[in-house]
Design a protein that fits this description.
It is built from 14 helices and no strands. By secondary structure, it is an all-alpha fold. The protein has a single domain, classed as MetI-like fold. α3 crosses α14. The chain is globular, with a radius of gyration of 23 Å.
Length: 278
């Protein structure tokens, strides 16, 4: 009996206190602020809310923010997988340095990243000056916004896929190759099903970060109305003008769109996990 009671002891408190602390912490930091935004918007009236949330300038910011975030997450999905694959499957000079640089967007202040990207891709910058004679302008355009979102979203893909690749048994790939499977066939039917949940998780994290990104984007975006204004900037502008109604309406629309997209990604991830478990 003494051994049995000792085996049931846990370092942390029981389920009840642990769940209570978890819900309290989650509610205090996440749920209560989000509910407050919805309650604030509910008191605006539908006509006022709709007018503030669907102004032409705001609609243009929605298209840029969500479109660039989705595109950046999709690009990172491909190249992040390739980078994680190289870091895990190959040994090359400078591998540890490259692995450490992956986390640079996490540690770098967003304002510093925005200034660095602007200096690099501006028409007189190192990279921008190469494209300027071709008539391609990167900074102060939606293309610059896309590059900034790719920069800050890459680590999410690499760091979610990398542990799965490290734990994956290469014997499965070797068995497929011994049975005559081509490389693409092996990747599609052996490797990809195992990586798909991690890829979707990284995609969701990169998308969520990109939608709300502000500091690294405003410098390179140029903030041209109807062209390169992102939605977080619209919220900040409304607050600076003491237009709390407009800021709240835009924030609610962003929350709803983000919830729906993340819900769809999580459902797809759950479906892929169940399919892979069969």
């Amino acid at each position: 009996m003494a051994l049995l009671s000792l085996a049931r002891r846990r370092v942390l408190p029981g389920f009840g206190p642990t769940l209570g602390f978890t819900l309290f912490y989650l509610s205090l930091l996440v749920l209560i602020p989000l509910v407050a935004v919805f309650i604030k918007s509910a008191g605006l009236g539908f006509d006022v809310f709709w007018a503030a949330a669907t102004a032409p300038r705001v609609i243009a910011s929605y298209k840029l923010s969500f479109g660039a975030a989705l595109l950046a997450a999709g690009i990172n999905l491909v190249f992040g997988l390739m980078l994680a694959w190289c870091l895990v499957r190959y040994d090359f000079p400078g591998r540890k340095l490259v692995d450490a640089l992956i986390d640079l967007p996490f540690a770098l202040p967003t304002a510093v990243a925005g200034i660095a990207l602007t200096a690099l891709y501006a028409p007189n910058g190192w990279v921008g000056s190469l494209f300027a004679p071709l008539g391609i302008k990167i900074a102060f355009t939606p293309l610059g916004v896309l590059l900034a979102l790719i920069f800050i979203g890459l680590p999410f893909i690499v760091r979610t896929v990398q542990p799965v690749l490290e734990d994956m048994e290469t014997e499965l790939e070797e068995a497929a190759a011994s049975l005559g499977a081509q490389r693409w066939t092996t990747f599609r039917f052996v490797v990809l099903p195992t990586l798909l949940p991690a890829l979707l998780t990284g995609f969701a994290l990169a998308f969520a970060r990109a939608v709300g990104e502000y500091g690294s984007v405003i410098f390179i975006a140029g903030n041209i109305p109807m062209v390169s204004e992102i939605t977080p900037l619209m919220i900040i502008s409304k607050l600076e003008q003491y237009d709390y109604v407009g800021a709240t309406a835009i924030a609610v629309v962003m929350l709803l769109f983000s919830f729906l997209l993340l819900l769809a990604i999580n459902l797809l991830q759950a479906w892929s996990s169940k399919r892979g478990a069969r």
